[in-house]
Specification:
single chain; alpha/beta; 7 helices; Rossmann fold; globular; 7-stranded parallel sheet
Length: 244
């Protein structure tokens, strides 16, 4: 893992976007299709914004999958990750070949997971844009997380710490409004990415960053497993790096 600290979250987002754009361009030199994973949430706002502003990104070759979605909220709910990506990424990545979205409203969630797994299982992931939750989760793999399943997408329960974070960030009005389940990409599927770019700004992420760097890899500290990845960039700002 390569760790870099920036002055603020804007500089962090710009740096993450440049890394991602370069990885996409490099992959496109030898491939007709570039597969990326893209996360959502407050920590990714600048990364996604600046990525769509990068020049000469061959979006016509890019297919994207997103990491997770709440179970039971509509695609126009303010906290929906489908809404987040459609407005902030799909609408602005001009010429994007394809965006595969997770449908948390599916009548049969198991069939939705099967659909997603069939689609992503045949793909080679070139770059993953992600973050780390306040509780150390990757995607919605809250502790104690399943570090070993090889299923690409799984149905997970959201713990109170994760759900409270969503309130703190303003996505929901109250804890009671936050769904208790989600469809999430698994940790092993994230780790299958050739390159991982973790954007982790903000003082509320400082303890999670410390745990990521110092704790043993275990279900209680999911993000620590990123240290085992061969090409993982961890981008921090001064606030998230304050406990290191």
């Amino acid at each position: 893992m390569n760790l870099t600290t920036y002055e603020n979250e804007q500089e962090l987002g710009q740096a993450a976007a440049k890394l991602a754009a370069k990885a996409i361009r490099d992959a496109a030199q030898t491939k007709d299709k570039v597969i990326i994973l893209i996360a959502t949430g407050a920590s990714q706002l600048n990364t996604v914004k600046y990525l769509t502003e990068q020049e000469d990104v061959p979006w016509e070759k890019v297919e994207a999958f997103h990491l997770d979605e709440y179970v039971g909220i509509s695609a126009d709910h303010p906290a929906s990750f489908r809404k987040y990506l459609n407005e902030r990424f799909v609408a602005k990545a001009q010429g994007l070949q394809k965006m595969t979205l997770v449908n948390g409203e599916a009548e049969d969630l198991n069939k939705e997971v099967e659909r997603l797994n069939a689609l992503i299982s045949r793909e080679e992931i070139d770059v993953c844009l992600a973050g780390i939750g306040e509780n150390g989760h990757l995607a919605f793999n809250d502790p104690p997380a399943d570090l070993t399943t090889i299923q690409p997408y799984i149905i997970v329960n959201l713990d109170q710490g994760c759900r409270q974070q969503q309130c703190n960030e303003g996505w929901f009005d109250s804890l009671a409004d936050v769904p208790t389940k989600a469809i999430s990409m698994s940790i092993q599927q994230i780790l299958s990415s050739k390159k991982i770019i973790l954007s982790v700004p903000g003082t509320r992420k400082a303890q999670a960053v410390k745990n990521t760097m110092n704790e043993e890899v275990s279900p209680e500290f999911p993000s620590a497993i990123m240290r085992n990845h061969a090409d993982c960039e961890l981008l921090l700002d001064k606030e998230s790096a304050r406990l290191l």
